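Whether sequence alone determines local backbone shape is best considered at the level of individual chains. In the encoding step, the backbone of a single protein was reduced to a row of integers, each denoting a local shape. For completeness, the protein is quoted in full, as a sequence line and a line of structure tokens.
***
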Amino acid sequence: MSTTPGIAPAVNLKEALFSYNERFIAINLSRIWFTTFGKVATFKGTIFPYLFVKPTDDLHESFRLDREVLVVFARDFSFEARSLDFVDKTIFEFQNRLDKLCLILISRDSKIREKIRLLTSQEPETRLIVPFSYDELFDDRSGSLSMGRLKEFFYGRDLFAFESPLHSDTYFFGRSSTVQFLYDKYKSGENSGLFGLRKIGKTSVLYALSRYLTFREEFAVFLDCQEPAFHKRRWYELLEFIIRSITSTVLEPNNLEIDVSTNYSEKDASTAFEKDLNQIREKLQRKRILLIFDEIENITFDISPTEHWQKGEDYILFWQSIRSVFQKNPQLFSFIVAGVNPKIIETPQVHQVDNPIYRMLTPHYLAFFDASQVREMVSSIGNYMGLSFDDEIYTYLTEDYGGHPFLIRQVCSRIHNITSKERPIKISKYQYKEQKNNFDSSLRDYVELIVHVLQKWYPQEYKLLEMLSIENRHEFKQLAKATPLLIQHLIGYNLVESSDNENYIKIKAVSDYVADNSKLIRTVEKLEDKWQEVTVRRNTLETNLRRVVKLILKAKMGSVKGKDYFLSVIPSSDRRKTKLDSLSFDQIFAPDSELYFDDLRRYIKSNWSDFDSIFPEIELFDVYMPLVNKYRIDAHAKDISDDKYTILIVALDWLNAKISAFLI
């Protein structure tokens, strides 16, 4: 149904106690919006008039707005950010009616525009607030100021570029079912485990779960295990720290307190912990507390950065205490452990002692987004920024980045930054494909961050990824058969998927990164495959070696002297010398010149002081360069043993790595 500007007949702002100026502003707003509701509310001692306005057809076309938008009047002459608490409350109460991302704020503060800009720069998760002063909108009888301000604040922010976990529901997409699953576990008195790759959104889910409990007047305590204040404590000190965290985050805000036990010694800590939890339960009207342990690797055996958790007894004694108190008093609390890998619950013994929480809970892996979730997130956020996308792009994003929400947001952020600011605008599938390689390049640091934890803590899983990335499928199957749990982890992370008894890496950007950085050598059996591997590496080496010699020679002597100096390494009896001498400096180093690989080697050796920073190990250079020149199987198509092929690949990879590092 078409929506035109105006005010619904049932809306009587005078009876609702809007001031004259506020009623006049509402009339001006109704020149481009349709006002459906108006009320004056009191919140925490402050009066807030507010409206619900429905986007007209023109606004829908420009900003893709579908739901009604909240308009709040702030009567104070100096805007305070706490006024937004009223916004949060109202949008939560009318969540099935109001747009959750954006609102219009009308303030008596003449500097409201600058203050909102400062607020959103300091707190990126702030809703999309379109600010006006009373005076501005009082004078905006055409609606032109309103339209201009909407474009300024809608199109000016990069709403995709979040790198930290989300602390609010404003930009939280696609995880409601996971939050509900974890909540149901808590309500039934069960413990949970949430696992998945870095940057997949585990912490955002845990924050959302905490908010969900708060709205239901239930209690959760978020414990960040990566804080030194957490993992540097001994096990008995940590039990007391948890109690004090509960008192500061749950009891004190509700004007409650307990007398925390003073006897958190090694001998009595678990007893004190149980006693204090019972006190807390009584203060909280016998409600169960949810303890959320995030970044659990930091207090996990073998991999914690702190020695007494990594090698000592602290892991065993801490979890023995937690398990014992939980089994005796299941009504007191339940807990969630969250991390990358469920090692903590899958290892039966730790330092020859039974693991207290072995199989105590079932791991739940946080999944990547499917195409419909990618569409919901990208289209919803993109609409506010004046970006719409060809339908195929949602499929491309899902396939190219495996549905990893963080990587997809970063790609969309890049699309926003390289796209014209004349909005709204539609991104075509052709533009996406044209920029795909640039997107991948911009993601390499993020991909490294995601897989680094596997390299550091779970090297066997990373080795399996390496094998897949370089197509060493035979070795992969052998290792996978011996360690089936590792494959379950990789599939659980959504990094790997199985099809027709084969496994594949789901995210091409991850596969490319792992392959590019792999020290494994791809197994090849056929001569033509060996030929292909050597050809690619040798062509790269020779092209880049010409560039390096040319750059250094030109910088040292210039083109004229440099040419003569370089050609001195070629014997006068060599028939090529006359032909090369007739070429310009640049032509000598062109790909099609008759410059030999060994000419470059001899020049570098004769001028070693110019190149020793590139090739710091002269012994390896002296071995690898002649080896590469000797085994030119790509040129001569002769056979080569597996051992010599492996050595040749090692030589080519070493030389290419040194040159690439110089050219970066």
